[in-house]
Give the backbone structure.
Amino acid sequence: MAELNANNTPAEDLLKQHLEEVIELLNKQRLEETILQHQSMPRHDLVETLLHKQHQVALKQKLDQLHSADIAYILEALPLRQRLVIWNMVQSELDGQILLDVSDAVRQTLISDMDPDELLTATEQLETNEIADLAPDLPEDVLQELLESLNDQSRAQLESVLSHEDDTVASLMDFNMVAIRDDITLGVVLRYLRRRGNLPEHTDKLFVVDHQNALKGVLSLKRLLVNNPDERVSELMSNEVVHFKLSDEAADAARAFERYDLLTAPVVDEHNRLQGRICVDAILDYIREESDDEILNQAGLLEEEDLFSGIWQSLKNRWFWLGMNLITAFVSTRVIGLFENTIEQIVALASLMPIVAGIGGNTGTQTSTLIIRSLALGLISPSNVRKLVTKELGIAVLNGLVWGSLIGVVAYGLYRDAHLGMVMAMAMMLNLLVAAAMGVAIPLVRHHLKLDPAVGTSVLLTAITDSMGFFIFLGLATVFLI
Amino acid sequence: MAELNANNTPAEDLLKQHLEEVIELLNKQRLEETILQHQSMPRHDLVETLLHKQHQVALKQKLDQLHSADIAYILEALPLRQRLVIWNMVQSELDGQILLDVSDAVRQTLISDMDPDELLTATEQLETNEIADLAPDLPEDVLQELLESLNDQSRAQLESVLSHEDDTVASLMDFNMVAIRDDITLGVVLRYLRRRGNLPEHTDKLFVVDHQNALKGVLSLKRLLVNNPDERVSELMSNEVVHFKLSDEAADAARAFERYDLLTAPVVDEHNRLQGRICVDAILDYIREESDDEILNQAGLLEEEDLFSGIWQSLKNRWFWLGMNLITAFVSTRVIGLFENTIEQIVALASLMPIVAGIGGNTGTQTSTLIIRSLALGLISPSNVRKLVTKELGIAVLNGLVWGSLIGVVAYGLYRDAHLGMVMAMAMMLNLLVAAAMGVAIPLVRHHLKLDPAVGTSVLLTAITDSMGFFIFLGLATVFLI
């Protein structure tokens, strides 16, 4: 892997500079293409074509200098047409790595531009765990051919990864590791490593196994380097080691990496046999992906959209939650419909009711966000739920008193109607209680039912706080004001 | 740092088990305290006290076995009273590390339970960069005394970190690194490391500097291990290295770590002199914190709340955005107020208007979330903004046609009024256009003004889509239906 030549420019600025240069070259090229098409005088043709070639060469040179991750970034930032121009110019030995580095949405546009042979060449160079990452996006026939091209060990590894669920440790695992026995000296280990001639990326420890490949401990490179070559591995290895099983949850592994500041950790099967390792860079990608997903889901998007995805694709991505919201909006509309007689008599209710519903939604979301977070951190146990509920309801009562009175006074100020003010204040208080109760209950119940508490909670919550807000406010108004 | 003894239990389950055991012991203890208080018969006293002591010893033993990060987790999950019981039982040499591991909210509860001497003892053992992390939470006098206890080099380092902004590379930096010259052989380096006797945590490369401490390159441990000891550092070091300046943005450094799969990277000052390093575990914590902040901000919370924060503290945390929402809700209320005459005549408008406003808010949030994300990734440049705006407005028009017509038909179905249906459809279409335009414009303008596009966008957006939704719908109704 080539390293970036950063000179004195910070990595991020340099990257933007690369992007601008590429865009400039692309634009020049395009301009010339346009001129060439409109040019009728033959004697200019040669010059123009030469200039065109020259820019193409410059662009190719520029790309050849770049790290695969930087090319991935440039491809993300370009609209489809230009993206494919660049993609076809990239050195084919980087193709596989770039496919791994781009986002899912962009990957699909790149793959659909490649013929099966190109795809096969690009993916054959990848490591088993990388092929597993790409597998869902590959056409069936390419995947088949790829499987056949692998040796027995790699095929077994690939099948093992693919047989586990998406969010398990198996999906984060790679197979680049050095395993040693514990009955040799450090000197032997050092000679073995020199003979080997290289070490897998990010190796910070060697895994110590017995003759059945069962994990016995780890030897950190640190200890290998600072200790006397005569000492034995068994004396220096650590046998208290954070390790994971194939079927452990990826989120748990990520928390363990954060908590214990790990760089790599061994992965074992049910019989404690060494299967692979997890590396912190896979954890970093996982955490970023999870938090992106959470933010997208909260905004009502199913998945990440490529910045220049086709409109139709974007619509598909956005319609599910829009539709859900529309349905819940209609439900709360029907609640208002029940009270149309009341509104006809006191039209001020129509202006005030969105406030009751809106603030309910806001406080409910605050509560549910904190609960979802605590659930993710594993901080909520049966023994502290009651304390938690008491706290949230206490906050709702106080909020209700403060904001309810304030809004009651403002409503009175606007319409000079003391009863209206009191109804407004009471409705606010009650709806805040509903919101707090639901903000605690919905994530807890979803968690209890083994559903992801983060998905859909917000839509369900708003539906309830809206409907209840309208119902409570208009109901109280009907009883006390009519 | 002791490593976790995982035996055959996955780290996360083991942790929950630890928590349950601690809670059980705490409850037993408490029960006995209660019995002791209500016990009047003196002859039982001795037995009870003994039993009480016994549980205390068991609890202490349990805690002594745990990793500091695990104790931090247990402290997070306990209500204040029990948290402080445990905190006072923890071995004091772990105090500093635990203070670093807990969340800001819990840290404050722990610090306010310690007297200045305890705090000083706990923090004196920490490294300079760790002291810098705690500094904002320490009482002024403790911080002063701590500064005086440091040697000149550490004090200079601490002052350098504290003089930089929170979100710069300086805040992620530590000073644990090994720097070497380039004119020596690997054999000399290996002997030097053995004489040194240890290596900083997470060292994957040594930094190569000249006699003025200017960064010349890096030598990875990998190359050190697999090459012949006779070779020179200058021949094997890599001089194309991703490095950062003290004042670079932390977010950019995080992206570079993800992009180039780094474990550590050198940090230099303006004159290219080596100042420290960034380690991937600091990046991991940074990314987690940033994404947590983003999720909390979107829900209208200023910062992370401890699960058992006092009610008053929780209220302070939540009131700012609630207040903002209330103000914007009142603005849209006043828009409705303008049309009370219209609503009085066609009361159906009151039930239908929340739909127009709500769906506008939803589509606007979808658009702005994607824009905010692309801005964070640095994917938006002047050259592609127009394409982006066209795409989002195109989606809005299509969404408007589809959902607008659908809702128009439903409104007609409900009230048997074709004109009302058409007004509803038109209002939906127009408000979706407003929402898309604002969803693109607000983050871009905030970014242009160097404001964080993620903060406040959602409140501003909803305020506009609500007000405009009501205005467009009721305005059209006034023109066409009255």
Observations:
- Chain B touches chain A through 139 residues (CB under 8 Å).
- Chain B is about 70% helix and 5% strand.
- The two ends of chain B are 77 Å apart (CA to CA).
